[in-house]
Specification:
The chain is of the alpha+beta class. It contains ten helices and five strands. It has a five-stranded mixed beta sheet.
């Protein structure tokens, strides 16, 4: 029978492995600190993480083996193919990124990509469901609806974004919305895209915010951190105007395949 000391050693070895794999310390359920007066936020009980791009990309093999993940990825890719009008020969998650690049290059304006992505999100559900949810849940029970969508997002989107967990949202003035946030530890979609700011903004952040606000009847603010690739979902919070959103005034990543060397702001936003 393993000794108590052996058990403790295994526990801390697994914690260290988690930290090394995803570039941040394992923490308990946290609370975001909001965005007012800060470019990033941290979780209660966690060490503030600085840019840590020296950490190798996580191994998502085990995550991809989870029941339902392959089905969700295939469904999402099929909806993308219908929107783009052509398929890719690339398989797996790399195929998803290849389709994302095709989507971004198909439209002449960021707005075109954003609207196309919102159509893809809507196509994942029965046509009647978003408006029915807005009428039956979002309007009469907004707090419950926010918590429900946070939980569903954390449970069903890890194949796309990587490990994430439900957390609380700081609404300001000492008010905290319990369980209305989702913290993405290190966004797989952003990192695998290049990383690319325009993919994050045009193929994820803005269309997802608009899908929830306009179709599901719930305000949502998404706060990506371009330093460590984490992201905070804030259900029940409206995003700032686009000309005041710090995520939209970011420069290209040096490693981005379509980076512009002549602009301080990503040229595709």
């Amino acid at each position: 029978e393993p000794s108590k000391e052996h058990g403790m050693a295994m526990h801390w070895t697994m914690k260290a492995a988690h930290k090394n794999a995803f570039g941040r310390r394992e923490t308990t359920r946290g609370v975001d600190l909001g965005t007012k007066g800060a470019t990033t936020w941290r979780k209660r009980g966690a060490v503030q993480m600085q840019a840590n791009k020296t950490v190798g990309k996580p191994d998502y093999a085990e995550l991809d083996k989870k029941p339902g993940h392959a089905f969700l990825m295939d469904l999402f890719k099929r909806k993308m193919v219908l929107e783009i009008g052509k398929d890719t020969n690339v398989t797996g998650y790399d195929g998803l990124i290849d389709l994302t690049r095709a989507l971004n290059s198909k439209y002449e304006t960021p707005k075109g990509t954003q609207e196309a992505t919102r159509r893809i999100l809507k196509s994942l559900f029965p046509s009647w469901l978003p408006s029915a949810f807005a009428a039956m849940f979002s309007k009469p029970m907004p707090d419950l609806s926010c918590r429900l969508n946070a939980w569903v997002t954390a449970m069903t989107c890890q194949w796309l974004m990587g490990p994430c967990e439900v957390n609380d949202v700081d609404l300001g003035d000492g008010k905290v919305a319990r369980g209305q946030g989702v913290f993405v530890e290190r966004c797989r979609y952003l990192e695998e895209s290049g990383p690319c700011v325009s993919v994050c903004v045009n193929s994820c952040k803005i269309p997802t915010q608009e899908f929830f606000a306009k179709d599901m009847g719930l305000p949502l603010e998404m706060v990506p951190n371009y330093d460590d690739y984490s992201c905070q979902f804030r259900f029940g919070c409206s995003p700032p105007p686009q000309d005041q959103d710090k995520a939209l005034v970011a420069a290209c990543f040096q490693d981005c395949p379509s980076a512009s060397k002549c602009s301080e702001i990503c040229h595709k936003i």
